[in-house]
Amino acid sequence: MGMEAKVPSVEDTIAGILNECQHSTGLQARRAKELMKLRSQHRDGAFLTHFWKCLLPLFLVFKREPAVERLIRFLVTFLTVRNEKQGADCDAFLEEFFGLLLSSAESSNKGVRLRSVQILSEVILRLNEDAEVSDNLWDNVIESMLKRMQDKIPAIRVYSVRALGRFASAEDDPDNDTILCAYRKALESDQNAEVRRNIVAFIPPSNSTMHDIVRHTADVNEAVRKMAFVILSKKFPFQSLSIKQRACILQRGLHDRRETVQAECLKMLKDVWLNKCCQGDALVLLKYLDVETNETVGESVMLALLKADAITVQDGQGLQRFVSSTGRTEGQFEQAHQLEAEEALYWRVFTSYLHSEAQAKGHDAATTGGAEATMNAAVATEKNELLDRVLPSSMVEYVELVKAHLGEGPHLHFVARQLLLIGKHMDFSDAANRKTAGTFLHELMCFPEGHLEEENDVIIGDGLSLGGEKQWATAVAELAWKVHETPREFAMMVSNVVADLSKPCREGGASVMQWINSLAAAGFLLENIESLQLLTGCAIEGHELLGGLLLPAAKHIHTEVQRAAIRCLGLFCIKEVKPSLQALKQLRVILLNGVLLSQKMASKALFDLCMWHGAPLLDRGISLCVTDEGDPDGDSGLPALELLAQKLDVIDTEKQHLTENEDGEEETLQGILAEGFAKLLLQSKTFSDIIPLQEPIFTKLVRLYFNEETRNTPRLRQCLAVFFETYPSVSLQHKGCIMKSFVHVIRSEWPGICGNGNGTHSNAAMRRRHATKLSKFLLQMLHQPLFEGVAPSRQTFENGEVAEEADSHSPKELPKPVLEFDEELALRIAAEVSGFSTQRSAAAKSYVAMLLKILCSLEFRESEQEVIKCLQKLLANIKDALVGDRQTIKDIESFEARLVRVDKTPQATIADTDLDRILRNLGIDELKFCENEAKTPAPPSTKGRRRRVRKASSSDSDSSVSPVARTPAPPTTVRAQRSSKTAAMGKIRSDLAPSKKIIYPSSEEGLDSDASSKNDTDSEDNFSESGSDIEVGTAGA
């Protein structure tokens, strides 16, 4: 009997094809055609049913596996292949399959959601434009994908972003606006880097999205930054970006910390911006960057292109073509045409690069041998020859070229400065060249009218540096040091300039502009010499400079003249072996009584002198010449550091108080003081004068950093942020300073205690949260690990092991040691809490509760049994005084349980004398006494009330003398925290119903006598803030 061959079912056929496509991608195109043929044979819907059933196991796989990815790739191929003869069937099947995928995308299973969204996104991205799908289906897809962008699984959010990328466009459409809003919101808040990278890749280019892409060139993730540069080069035309955006993009990309991002930025710069948009002309590219405003960016672009060999110089190009000698008449040169700003920067960077490359190759040739040395020497010679062809042929031509641009006015000031920097690479080996250049420098420094102008009392420039800006002074100094190689020659040349400029000031009748120019030249001289001894025998010596120019200028009525003079006084004192007494006195007077602009400069000068000469030398000098004149506040006896610390208490963040420093950054007096003290505190080992003041100054810096009024001063906050990140890791002494300042900082910020204002309820709650955040910040600083090489040689860790001295190959962060700072901080917190245990106000209770939470988070060593005993003794006293505060007592009991576990001798206790000795050694007992004295003032009406109590009942005379032994009423104990309100309500009731003035708690006292007798020691604490009715009730009892 013959056996008929079994025909496989549709489901088996589909399953076989799917299984085969999991192993290889080579047969996927052929198998997709077989599935299409099978689908055409079953148009009754049976194919979709069997197909979906076979795919169900795929949706349950969440992990990324190669077999699953190959199968999904096959599904995408099958769904996107379109047969022209069966186009309607393909579209209908696609719509039905999309409906199933959209339903699965709402599943609670993360694997089902992931695979559904993945298949949807891949199909949408590869779908042909001629596919006919209903608008209703696309609306459902957009709605579903927008919802999946909020999914908690990052991979699902990634595929939903990719799916929406097909529908996003720059057109004005409601659906498009919804997608763009979702993109921009996720780009701003999503923590997953892959999600942000895909948003950057799929967001449509437009004026509104351009800012988002530029902003993410500074993303924290390398892949996102790299993708941002790819999109900028492909989707955004170079001309559509603003100058600021171009400069920002190049500044970030060319200086990125990752080489891959730098390479992508350089590729965009070279291939797209230079070759495609600027036709390979670097000067055109520099014009698009506005190099006068963005000089550093232009320099970085030039260096990057030179290193990439993207710039070549043709014959005849160079600075020589800007000076023509054909029209020479009477020793003058006719200039061909003026240099543009881009051309000046171009040739300055080019000559500097050639000079450095020639020197480097020459050094390599001298240190190597053989063929390598010959090759390096040939390259060095080639670079030098090219440099000679680019530079002016003679020193005379160079000087005339610079003078020609200087004479045109301030609009060519940038070009002239670039030419001065180019002059460093001229040949100064000839004495004639040095003489020509020296004469030119003297004329340049004595003729600054083209750079500083006085018009309507407005000074152009910073008013401090030579030429009105620091960069100009730096360029002049570099050229001057090339011309005058020895310090003596340099000092003589500049002193001649200072003597000529300051002559009207010393003789009298000088204008404000003449004062500014003279002080700028004097500051230039003092900045570039090592000692005032170099001025001996010069045109103006040190004592003449001080007495004839600097001191009179410091007393000038004009603020800008006074500020420039104070800067010069600080430089003058630094160059002295011992600072001048007259200069120190003037700096101190300005700090105390000067205008704010002068106070800022005096603060900088005093900080520099403290670091250079030491604070004791300054204090001794000031004490010799200080007088009561100009010192109405009596601050004449204070040391310099204390005078500076006093200025930290006043916040001056208003706009009229903001000034720009030499680098163009806005700064305030508090910012200058904070920066100076931060430097001293970080280097406390070197500057030991700050050690006696480090705790109060650290407290002020912390409060200043957390002050809401300093949010508008970014320089101050940035400086303190860096300081607080570094300070605890530098030294163990710094951790001790943080520990000792902990209680002071929190107490000064907590509202409602120690004279701190309480304000409204919402304001007090906000300040409490602020202080709690501050306490966590300090605790984090205290537990921050030390830098490598700073850790002590032996440390005891939590497990009792002892770490030996770390070698140089140990990791940078050691395991966190349990040092004595936590233990001493616990003692200080316990002493602080015991000082507040008698305070029953709501502010004091919340303050104690917060301190106890911090206390419970600290760690202890089992070897320090004495500290454990001290804490147990202090907590016992605290617990007795906190009856009624259940949560606080619960925290104390939890902490006591920890102490019991590490207590090796639970039967032994510490004596009061030993406790006082330990607290005295730590300086806590004195602190505690001062706190109690300030926190518990005697209420003025208590004596009168007690006097009335004694009249009402003579049997209470003993209790009034010894209030600790008095037995309280239990109901009053329960409501101790609202005692003031109870007293007020009792008084109101007594006025309304006199017959009900009987105190009922006395009758309940007998019922709860056992409970009351246990709390005898707490009664005075519970009634310390109660009203007269409670006192009468106690007397009646």
Descriptive report:
The strands form four sheets. A two-stranded antiparallel ribbon has the order 1-2. It has a two-stranded antiparallel sheet with strand order 3-4. The protein is an all-alpha fold and 1037 residues long. The N and C termini lie far apart (116 Å). The chain is built from 49 helices and eight strands. The chain is flat and about 120 Å long. The longest helix is centred in the middle third of the chain and has 27 residues, at 341-367. It is found in: Chromosome. It holds the Pfam family Cnd3. It comes from Ceratopteris richardii (Triangle waterfern).
Task: Give Rg in angstroms.
Answer: 40 Å
Strand order of the largest sheet: 1-2
Helix content: 55-70%
Which whole number gives the mean pLDDT? 79
Count of helices? 49
Distance between the termini: 116 Å
- Summarize the biggest pleated sheet: 2 strands, antiparallel
Overall, the morphology is flat
Approximate strand percentage:
under 5%
Poorly predicted runs of 5 or more residues: 325-334, 449-456, 793-818, 926-982, 984-1037
Structural class: mainly alpha
Pfam families: Cnd3
Protein name: Nuclear condensin complex subunit 3 C-terminal domain-containing protein
Family: Belongs to the CND3 (condensin subunit 3) family.
Subcellular location: Chromosome
